[in-house]
Amino acid sequence: MKKLYYFNLALMFLITQSVMAQTTFDNVPPLSGGGNTLGGVSFNFTTNQSITIQNLRCAFSTGTGTANIWYNPQKINGAPNVSTGNGWVNLGTSAPFAGLSPASTSPVVQTIPIPLSLIMQPQDTFGIFIQWTGNVYPTTNTSIPTFTDGTVTIIADASCAFTGPGTTPTFNPRQINGGVIYNLNTPCSGTPTAGIASAPTNVCANQQFNVSVSGQSIGSGLTYQWLSSPTATGPWTPITGATSINETVSQTVDTYYVCEVTCTNSSLVDTSTVVFVQTSPNLPAGIYTIGALGNYPNFTAAVSAMSCGIAGPITFNVLPGSGPYNEQITIPQIINSSATNTITFNGNGETITYASTGTGDNFIIRLDGADHITFDS
Fold this sequence. Notes:
Elements: H1 2-20, E1 23-26, E2 37-47, E3 51-58, E4 64-65, E5 67-72, E6 89-93, E7 97-98, E8 110-111, E9 118-120, E10 125-136, E11 146-148, E12 152-155, E13 163-164, E14 178-184, E15 196-198, E16 202-204, E17 209-214, E18 222-229, E19 237-238, E20 246-249, E21 255-263, E22 268-271, E23 275-280, E24 286-290, H2 299-305, E25 314-318, E26 325-326, E27 329-332, E28 343-346, E29 352-353, E30 365-368, E31 373-376
Parallel strand pairs: 16-23, 24-25, 25-28, 26-29, 27-30, 28-31
Antiparallel strand pairs: 1-14, 2-10, 2-12, 2-13, 3-8, 3-9, 3-14, 4-7, 5-6, 5-10, 11-12, 15-17, 17-20, 18-19, 18-21, 21-22, 21-23
């Protein structure tokens, strides 16, 4: 019995080590003319086994900054426009941490302090974008567009390897100097745990947003299906294509969501908690007035009324004699605005001014990506 006891103990230790072992894979190609680039770096990432990505790694500039990680369940094919509206999911922003100084031909790669637990199934290909408040260190070593350890592959070819500021990088091709920390998932068995569903509490009509689950079972052989319903008890309707733990969806009415998790090895199913998302409507098409006795007391209130978009052409008539208006206004991109769904401000001879203190912006009205807007005196 004593020998058997020690044998079982040793076997249990080996199994534990096998299940819990992490693999770190860095590409770190030699820097060949890439240099440092302000902003972020994108690439595609694929696997031939079921894995859980624990962390990503990257070479950053010196100094202290924050990292922001995005992923897209569809592979990048062209310059990425990183936004929830384009199917990207934000996986988190780090607390400030120090970048390391890379040598000119041997960049120093470090682990980004954002725990991910991002599950990938065999043959999945995800788009990844890593932002940094300082510089990332890419390379232009395009003679080696893919890097693999036999299980996972970093794809950094001309179709997906971009760097640049903000969330619309344009320098290409620029390969990441970095990598990934991952675990191989063990096969699922029995009844899985679907976990807790989460989503924003309130969204605009037709606005894309993320739904996700946490605390779910992890293993190979698990499938995911998001369902929606107008009530908390169903009936539930499968959302076409929503088959991962993080998904991008949209809605026009208040909606309930759950995620159904199936272990294909046992054919047993569990359903996550229910999450409710309310909808703020678009501003109905029509003619509105601005002024103390109008629909909106000032321009700021009128612009705020369009924060969830418009349902058709909009006209704002400034009431005669209601001015002058002392405001500083920023008009963002308006959801559903188009060459047909235009927005018109008729000033009727009234004025809008802004008394600048000289310490900030001096604009009166600024359009931040907004179009199809006309201002008539």
